[in-house]
Fold each of these.
Amino acid sequence: MDIHDVSDDLEIKVKKYQRGQGADLESLKDKKLKGQLAVKEDLFKKSANAAAKAEKWLMQTEEGRLEPEGLEKTWRFSQQSIANEVDVASRKNQFDLVLPDLGPYTLDYTSSGRYMVSAGRKGHLSIIDLHTLKPIKDMQVGETVRDAVFLHNELFFAAAQKKYTYIYNRAGSELHCLKEHGSVLKLQFLKNHFLLSSINKFGQLHYQDITTGQMIGNYRTGLGRSDVLQLNPYNSVLASGHSGGTVSMWKPTSPAPLVKMLCHRGPVTAIAFHSNGHLMATAGMDKKLKIWDLRKYKAVQTLPGMAKSLDFSQKGMLAASTGSFVQVLATSDSQDYSRYMIHTMAKGYQISKVLFRPYEDVLGIGHSSGLSSILIPGSGEPNFDSWVANPYETLKQRREKEVRVLLDKLPPESIMLDPTQIGNLRNTRKQEKQTKEEKEAEKAAAVAAAKNVSLKKKTKGRSKPSKVARKKQEGIELAKRSFVEQNKEDGAAKKKQKRITDASDLPAALQPFVSRKRS
Amino acid sequence: MAETKRKRNVAPATNRNNNNKKKGGKQSNWKKGPHLPNALQKQLDSLNRNEEEDIIQSDEDLYEYGEKLPEEESQKNRAYDPVENFEYELPEDFEDEDVASDDEDGDDGVKKGDHDGDDEDDDDDYDDEKHARMLQDITGLPGAAFEGKKKKNNVIVYESYPEAESNPTHDINNDGRVTIDDFLNPLHGKSGFSKLRKDVARLDKKSKSILPPLPKPQQEKIDRKTAYIQANKRLTEYEHLVKKNREAQTIYFNEDIDLGNSTVGAIVSEFKPRTDFEMKMDLLINAKELSDAHQSDGARLLELNQVSAEDVKERQDRLAKMRNLLFRDELKLKRIKNIKSKTYRRLLKKDQSKVGSIDTEMDPEVAKELAEKQEFKRAEERMTLKHKNTSKWAKRIKKRGLDAQDDGTRAAISEQLQQHALLTRKRNSMHDDDDSSDVSMDDDDDDDDVISGDDDDDEASKLKFLEKGKKRTLELLEEDDDAPKSGLLSLPFMARGQKKKKDAADEEARLALQEFESSLKQLEGDDDLNNNTGLVGGRKVFGAQKKPVSQSKIKVNNKDRDNYFDNSESEDDADVTEDVKDKRDRIITQKDDTIDTDILREESEVGHDPLFDDISKVSGPKIAHEVSLFSTNISKKSKDKANKSKAKAKKSKVAELASSKETDIEHGDEDRYTDGEARMVDGVITSGTDYELPSQDDLIKRAFAGDDVEGDFEMAKQEVMNEENPEPEKPVLLPGWGEWTHKQERRGLPSWMVEEHERAKKKRDADLKKRPDAHLKHVIISEKVDKKAEKLQMKVLPYPFKNKEHFEQSNRMPLGPEFNPATALGALNRPEVVKKPGVSIQPIKLKKGKK
C-alpha cells in the first residue's frame, strides 16, 4: 500500500480532496486553537487520503481519446471509421432519427444520461430510454414547443409551449400549467434547488419552486428578448445572453444581475459552462467564440466562427454547432481549446441544439429534421457515482433517491457566485451613515423622552417644583450632551481625515518631510 | 533603755505577726468592748483620736509607701517587665528577714536609705508604748487587749508574707528553677504515676529548650506558605488529567456506567410479584400444572379448562339476580313516569336542575338546552331590564339613598346589577349581524320548497295563510302605539326618531296589507285585473283562455315592481333602518312566491293544452322568480343607485361600441400594414398567436442592436456605479441664506462646503477603485448585498478564532458522509462532550496507578 501512496497521481488526488491548503498554524498564538486545528487538519488529511485511495481503486475506468498516429489528425476521423472500431454497445449510441415533419428538435438528458426528452418545434414531445432505444412516450401537443427539460428525474418534464409552460409526467399527462411564466423561450432546471427557471418573450426571468409551486423570483432583465439561458452547474447561477452582446448572471434572490459582462459586439447566440464552474464559452453574432475565465472575468481564448449552440462535456470538451456542422473542441491542459472532431450533417439540416450525454461518449444533436447521436470519444465521465446519478437505477433506488434529494434540497438564497463563501465570514459592509435629518430626529426624540420622564414623588421638600424643574433640565441636558459628543467624535474623525488628505495635497517637495514626521 | 523597751514591746508584735492572722477580723468587736464613764471617754476620745489616727495613718502610710514606691519605680525604670518585677520583689523578702531579725518594720529598711527618720520612728514607738501603758493604767485591763488594735494593722502588713512563703518563690530562691520532679513527687504511689513518669522521662531525653512562639502574622504567613506548597503539590497530581482533558477533542463522561436493561422483554423478565394480588396472579399463571400442560401436548389444558357444575350454577344465579334487578328498576321507572302530581314534578325538576348543572359538561344535548335557556334569559333581560334597578324595591332604595342602607341591601343591589351586566353583556357571535338576512333566506328557501313540492295545495289553506298574515300586520300596526313615558326613550329627539321609524314601519305594514288584500281578492276570483289585460309584445298566444291568466300574472308582477319602486322612493325620504328593510324584503318575497304558486295552480286548473301547460309551468315560476330576485336586489339599493347603474350600463355599452369600432379601425390599420398571412392569423384581435410581428421600432432596434454596444455598456456600468456608490451632492446655497448683499455671490461657496464636497468625491473615487470590477472595463460586478443570503454567512468570527483565514480554512472541508470515509467521519463530527443522558457527571477522580 505504502508503495502506491508515493505515486504522483495519488498525491494529486489527495490534494484535490484536501480542497486547498490548511491554515498556517505557526502564526497562531492561541495554543488551544492551534491544537484543535492541527487535529482537524490531520483528520482532513486522513479523509483526503482515504478518498484518493478510494478513487484510485474504485474508479479505474479511464476515459479514452482519439489518438492520432503520425500525420493523422483527430478531426479526420469520421463517425463511420469510429463505428468500425467500437463495441456493439457503443455503436448503438450512433443513430439518426429522421423526423422531417415536426422539426427543428431540441433535446435534454436526465442527469444520469439514460433518458432523453426531445421536443419538436411543431408540437412533438417524446421520451426515449437510451439503453433500450425505445420510446417511453411519444405525443403531439398540437402547438409550438420551444423547449423541454427534465425535472429531477425522468418521471417529469417541463415543456415550454406556445402560450404557457406545462409540466407532464412520463405517461404524458399534463400535471401543471405554469401560466405565470408567460410564453417561455428557454427553460432550465436547477436540480439541487428544485427551481424551474425560464426566460420569456419579454425578457423576464422566472424562478419557480416545483416542490411548493411558489414563485421564488420574477425579474425583468431589461435587455430585451432573449432565448439564451444557461445554468452554471457549479454554483447554479443562471446566465442569459442578450442582443447587446452582454451576458448577465442571475440568482433567484436578487433582482439585479450579479455580473454583467460585455462579451460580444453582436447579439449573444449561445452560452455554455464548464462543469468546474471556471470556464464559460460564449458565441456571438460577431463571428466569435470566446472562452472566459470566470474567476478573472477575462477571455482566455477567442476563436473565430459562429455557433448556434454550445455545450461543454463532463470532461471539458466543447461542442459548437453552426448550420449543419458540428465541431468539438478539446484541450489537453485546459488552456487552449483546439479542434478535436468535426461532424457534418446532411446538407440543409439546421442544427438547433447540441448536448453531450452524461456518462457516455455521446453527443446528441437536435436538428431540423430529427435527432442524431454521434460518438465523441473521451467526452463523458467514465465512472459514475450511483449516489449522484445512476444510469442503471432501479425503481426502488429511484424512489429512495427522490426522497433523499428532496431532503437535501437547498434554499434558493444559497445560490451565489462563490458557493464556498457559505458559512464564511460576511464581508464587512460599508457602514450606513446617518443623515443629518435622522440625527436631528433622533436627538429630538431623546430630548422629548427626557422631558416626559415622570419624577418620583419624594419626601417633603425634595420634590419642590423648582427642584423637579432643575432635575428635568439636567436630564434634557444629559440627553443632548450625548449627541454633542457624537458630533465631536465625527468632527475628530473629519479632522484626522483632513490632515491626511492635507499631507497628500502637499507639493511633492514637502511630502517626504510629512511622511517622516508621521512615521 | 528605750531600745530594750521597744524591743520588748515589738517582740510580741512580731509573734502576733507570725501566729495571729485572724485577729484583724475582730477589730470591730473589740471596739464594742467595756465602756468607760462618759467624761473619761470624751477625754480619751479626744486624745485617742489624734493618736490613733496618727498611728494608723503612719502605719498605713509606712506600709503602702513601702510597697508602692518600688513598684512605681520599677515600672518607671524597667518598662513593666514581669520577670524583672518578680526579681525586684526579692529585696522585700530579704527585708522580711531583716524585719524578723531586727524587730523592725519593713518601712525602716526602706527608709534607711532615704532619710534619717529614726528619731521619729522611735518617738512613734515610744508613743505607742506610752499610750498602751496609759490605757492599761486607766482601764486596768492588760495592755495586750489594747495592742490588738495595733496587731490588726500589723496583720494586714504581714499577711502577704506567709502567702509568699507558700508560693514557689521560696524554691526559686533556693535553686533557681522548678523541676518536674517537684510536681511529680507528691503523686508518687498514685495510679498512673508510673506512666506519667515514663512520659516525663521520655520527654526529658529529647528535651530541648522551647523557643517562644513567633508573632501571629509571621506565624500565619508561614502557615500559608506551607499550605500553598502542599496544595500545589496536591494539585499537580491532577495536572496530567486536566491536561489530557484539555487536549482531548472529545470528553467522555461516565462511559462505564451501566444503565441496565432497556428493552421491554428485559424489564418484564425482571418482574417480581410484590403485592398480594400480583402474587396470586403469579401463582395462577405460573402454576406448575399449567406450565407443564403447556410444555406437553396441550391436551391437559382442555382438562384444566373444565368448569365445575357449581361454578356454572353460581354464574347463572348471578345473572338471574341481575336480570331481576333490572326488571324491578324498569317497573319502578314506569310507575314514576305515571305520577301526575304537579308538585312532585316541580320538586323533581328542581332536583334535576341541581344535578343537571353537572351533567351539562358531559352531555352536549343538555348543554345545548341550557344554552338556549340562557339565551332566552338574556333576551328577556334585555327587553325587561328587570335587574337594572327598575323594580319598585330598587327604586325605593335608590330614593332613600344607598348610603342609608345596610350592608345586606347594598350587596343585594350590587348583586342585581352584576346579574344584569352578566346577562346583557355582548356576546361574540358570528350570527349577530346576519340573523335577519339568514332568516329571510331561509324563508325564501322554504317558499321555494312550497312552490316545488306543494303545487296542489288547496285554496283554503292559502286563504288562511294570507288572512293570517293580514291579521298579524294589523295587529302590528295597532300594537306599536304604546310609547315609553319615561327613561331615555322618552326624550324628545328619541321620541321623534322612534316615531319616524314607526311611521316607516307602519307604511310598510300598510303596503303589505294592501298586497295581502290584492292577493286575497285575486284568490277570491276577482276579475278586475283580468279585464285590464293587454298584449305582451313578442309572444305567441295560444289560446284565449290562457291569455288572461298569464297576463294577470305579469300584471301582478308588474304591480309588485311598481310597488317596489314606490317603496324605494319613499325610502329615500324616510330614515329607515336596515332591520325594517330586511323585514320588508322578507314579507315581499314571501308574498311574491305565494302569488306565483297560486297562479300556477290556477293555470293548471284552467289549462287544457298540455303543451302550453308545460310552457306556462316552466315560464311561470321562472319569471316570477326572476322578478322576486330582481325585487330583492333592488330593494337593497336606492333608486338613485339603480339609476346610476343603469347609466353605467349604458355607458359601458357605449364604450363597448366605441371600442369595437376602435378595434375595427385597428384591424384595418393592421391589415393595411401586414401581409396576407398575418391577416389570416389575426382574425381575432385577442387570439394569442405564436408569431408576433415586430414593430418598426423593434426591427430597427434589432438590426442595429450591436451598433454601439460598448458605449451602451459603459453607460450601464456608470449607472450601476452611481446607484451603488452615489455621487456626492453638489454643494448648494440656499437662496437668501447668508446673503445680505451680493457679497456671497462674489465670494462663491464657503470653503467648508467645497472641502466637504471634495472629500466626498475622493471617498467615492476610492470606493470605486476598490470595486472588484474596477479594472475590468467590460464587466459589472454587483456589490449589492443580498439580505436573504446574509444569514448563510457569519457576522462575526466565532470565539477562538482571531483570524479570518484560519476560520475559513478550518471550514473548507465538507463534513457529510458523502465526502468523508467512515473512519474520519465520526472523528470529524464528534461532539465536544459525550455523555449519557440522565447520568450525573462525577468530579474527576485521581487514579493512583497512573502518573
Amino acid sequence: MSGKPKLHYFNGRGRMETIRWLLAAAGVEFEECFLESKDDLTTLQKGGFLLFQQVPMVEIDGMKMVQTRAILNYIAAKHNLYGKDLKERALIDMYVEGTTDLSELLMMYPFQPADKKEQHFATLVDKATNRYFPVYEQVLKDHGQDFLVGNQFSRADVQLLETLLMAEEYKADILAKFPLLQKFKARISNIPPIKKFLQPGSQRKPPTQEKDVPKVMKIFY
Amino acid sequence: DGVLMFQQVPMVEIDGMKMMQIRAILSYIAVKHNRYGKDLKERALTDMYVKGITDLIQIIIMFPFSPPEAKEKNLDSVKKRATNRYFPVFEKVLKQHGQDFLMSNRSSWADVQLIEAILAVEEKMPAVLSTFPQLQAFKIRMSNMPTIKKFLQPGSPRKPPPDEHYVETVLKIFKV
C-alpha cells in the first residue's frame, strides 16, 4: 500500500481529468484504478466506497473523497495552490467556476445525440469566445502579471490552461482574438510539472472519441 | 454594464467585491464566518456533504421548469434521489457520531444546506422524512437555532416556494 493518491474512474477524461491536472501541477504522483464495466462501478458502490454512489473517487490521506470540487479544493489547499488569503481564494473560486462551466460544455459534446451536435458546438464556441475567454483576457490585461491571482501560480492557472487546450482541440484558432491568453498558454505550459504532464506517456488522457462513448454510457447508465 | 463577470446572476456585493458564482460566494461566506470546519480534513468533509446536497437541491430548483407531461416523473425522481441516495448518507452520519451537527458539535455550512434541502423536499413530499428519525430530530434542532428560526419566520428574506408567476418571470428575464 503506497502513500500515493489512488484515482477511481473510467480510462478517459470526464470529471477526473481536472483532478489529474491539479495533482500533476502540484508534482504529486498518483495511481489509477480504471472502471471497465458496470460491474466495476457496482462493486465500488456495494462496497460502501462511494459516499453518494458516484465517481470520481480519490483515495487520499486516509479518506475516500468524492465530489470533484471537494477533491480539487482539498488538493489545492494542501499544496498551496489556493491563494494566500480569503480574498484571493474568493477570486480563484470565481475564476475556477467559470472554467468549470466551460469545461463542462466541452466535455459533454461527444455525448450529444447526432442531431444536437451542431447546435452544441455552436453554443460552446459562442460561450467560449464571448462569455468566458474575454473575462480571463481582461484579468491578465488589467494586472499585467504572469498568473491569474496574486502574482502566484494557483489552481486557477492550471484549470484555465486545461480549458484553453481543450477548447483548441475543438477549434484550433479559438484563441485567435486573445493574445494574452495565447501568451498565458505558452507560459503555463512551460512550467516543469505541467510540461511533463503535457508530454506523451503521461497520465493525461486523450479527448473522448465517438467510439468510446458507448462503453462509457454502459458503465454509468 | 460590465458588472457581471460571466454575464450571469447570482451576484453578491460583499466586502468591496462583486462576487459571482454561487459556490464561490457560499465558500467565502462560510470561511469568513467559521462555518467551514476547523481544519483541512473537516473542510474536505464539509465540501463533500455540501456538494452532495447541492446536487439534490439542483434537481429541486429545476423541477418547476419541467414541462407538464414530465412533472410527475421528475417529482418521482426527486423523491427517489432524496430517499435512496442523499438522506440515507446523512441519517447514517448523524447516527454514527451521535452529535447534533454533521461536522461534530458546531453547526457548519453543510448543516444549513441540509436543512434547506430537507424543507424544500418536504414542500413537495410532506412525509419524506418518515423513515429518517435522525433527520427528523436534526430538522427540529436546526429550525430552533435562533438565526435559522428567525429566517423561517414570515417577513424574513427567505423566498416562498416557486409558483407559476416565478417560472414565468425567470423565463422572461433569461429569455430561455
